[in-house]
Amino acid sequence: MIDDIAIQPKESIKAKAGRVIRKNIYRWHRALGLLVIVPTIFWTASGVMHPFMSHWFKTSIPHEFYLAQPVVQQDVKLTLGSVLTQNRITEFKNFRLVKFDGKAYYQVNAVNDELSYFDAATGAKLVDGDRKYAEHMARYMLEDQKSKIVSSTRLTDFTGQYKYVNRFLPVWKVSFDDDRQMDIYVETGQSRFATFNDRGRKAFIWVFGTFHNWGFMDLITNNTVRIAVMVSFLGLIILSAVAGVIIYGLMWGKFKPVKSGSKQGILRKYHRSIGIWSSIVTFTFAFSGAYHAIQKLDPDERQKYVYDPVIKTEEIAQASMIDLKGISNIGLIKWGENIFWQTVRKDWETDETVVDYTNIKDGKKLEDGNIRFAKYLARKFAAQEERNAASCCDLMEAQISSPISGADVEKASMVTSFAGEYGFVNKRLPVVKLAYDTPQHTTYYIETTTSRLSTKVEDNNRREGFSFAFLHKYSYLDFLGKNMRDGIMTAAAASVLIVSVLGLLVFLKIK
Q1: Which residue segment(s) compose the domain that 412 sits in?
Q2: Is residue 496 one of the residues assigned to a domain?
Q3: Strand pairing partners for 158?
Q4: How far is it, in rounded angstroms, from Cα 105 to Cα 125?
Q5: Is the same domain home to 270 and 188?
Q6: How far apart are alpha carbons 47 and 188 in whole angstroms?
Q7: Angle at 392 between CA 387 and CA 397, to 5 degrees
Q8: For a surface tag, which of 50, 135, 298, 428 has the fewest beta carbons within 10 Å of its beta carbon?
Q9: Is the peptide bond before 170 cis (omega within 30 degrees of 0)?
Q10: Among 150-159, 465-474, 486-495, which range has the highest average pLDDT?
Q11: What whole-number distance in Å separates Cα of residue 502 and Cα of residue 46?
Q12: Each residue of 121-171: pLDDT tens digit?
């Protein structure tokens, strides 16, 4: 008897809660839907536009990869040391050899990160050389030697049209006076094409940045508030989607049928007929979007992880130029007390890339040099991250404990194509992958040719990346091909947009 009395109130509360939910869930669904109708339309409409602008109706250009002209031994009459001495340069950060307009040049990165160009045969400085090389690259990308160049601007920060997702800095923006109002972005420091924007892409970037990423809020507040507001609305959308699943999936027969033939009936009919599908799709988009946005609260600071020590001219003054046969890129690496020629050989048919390190003093190659240098950079970057400061001296950073201190490298390999967790969004190739035996399975991707961190991936990044790729970008449909995958993704986003509009019309009719 006592047990019956104790159990009864719990059953009554449960039954009462069920009645309240059944009675009010449709009202809650409507209220939540109306609260988020405008953000939902913003997100879905701009999302539907994405594959059209970035894939199906994307403007093409003749070249989307800059093929640098090879510099051969005969092009280089003077040593690096003699050219620097001739031009009274006592210290610098690095150099490369580039060739354009029929001449080979030493491209020298100064201590202030400005690039200067010196004729490899005479040592004469090319006036305004970096701009000229950027314009040469831009014309190559378009195969256009005639159109007028309106402006050439060196960018050291990301802009509204050149977003952070492009990764490379500094770059040159070369604008053409042609029928497409084309802007070409090139990174002269590594002879790389970054991106291009024509009139249509510029408009799309503005629309997507404004309505999908809510860039308009940057004008009135900071990044944290913008993300907090976005996540709040996404949370309401998730709740509305869950309510929709319950209504259309579990309580379909609980509502009185409307009279056939009425306009209101047509609206309700079609709103409900795709409601269950739309609610599930809405949930997946909103959940993965919120998960992705939350990660943005932790700033992506990969740009600051770069190792670029100053080299004194006297340290390399006596060094003879290394054999350039088969070399596609060359630079210097100052590593402790040693300085090495860093040379890149790439087989364009097999896509095999070999990076070698040759001591400038004795000409000996460093065995397994690229992997060893990558490990050195990973330790430096881990120590720098632990200090949350700029890179410091080797001695100080060697004494700093970091998550990879003492951890074994489970896998070290060269990555020459985008795949898996190292996707196209990272932009840099080739890189060295270093997978460490840590609780978070920390993996560093190091671009040794620029001594930069490309990205660091841990288990939390993998979970979020999988969520976004699987639920937001439909990567599980890749086997169908890009066109089919994007078509299904667009149809899914469009269905949410249609349901949202129909829901708004239903509400307006009822009112």
Answers
A1: 368-450
A2: yes
A3: none
A4: 9
A5: no
A6: 33
A7: 60
A8: 298
A9: yes
A10: 150-159
A11: 18
A12: 999 999 999 999 999 999 999 999 999 999 999 999 999 999 999 999 999
